[in-house]
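[Q] Does anyone have a clean structure-token version of this?
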Amino acid sequence: MKKMILTLFAACVITGCASVVTNTDYIPMGPDGLSVQITDASKMPVFTYLKDIKEPWAPIGMYRVKALPDNDEVIKSEIVKIKKAAAAKGANAIILNQFYDDAAAQDGHPITLAAYFVKYASAVTEADKAKIQEYAELEKLRNANN
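[A] Here you go.
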């Protein structure tokens, strides 16, 4: 038992007890399962200004990571995760914003990252068009019932 406690303590010291509990959510703005063109998330373009995107695009979703500490390494790590999530959803780029929450600062976790997942019009396949059409029709039905 003593050896297990020492091993656990050593592992915590080595890793710096660096686990960060975050609160994430994804808000779809388009259909799931769009074609994936970016398979290496490290190549996912990241924009901070809309004007920097030079071709027609549409948002397909928004991914938020809340309650991050104000720590560059943690934020960089979360951006890598956001890029992977965007690639998996079929995004061609992300628009990334960072917000500071004064209320959450009291708990030491004041940062929220918000990323719009972007799909370029030029990257939409025929299969994507069918999914987009189906999504639009379902949205009309949902809105008609409200």
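[Q] Thanks! Anything notable?
[A] The beta strands are 23-28, 46-47, 57-68, 93-100, 111-120.
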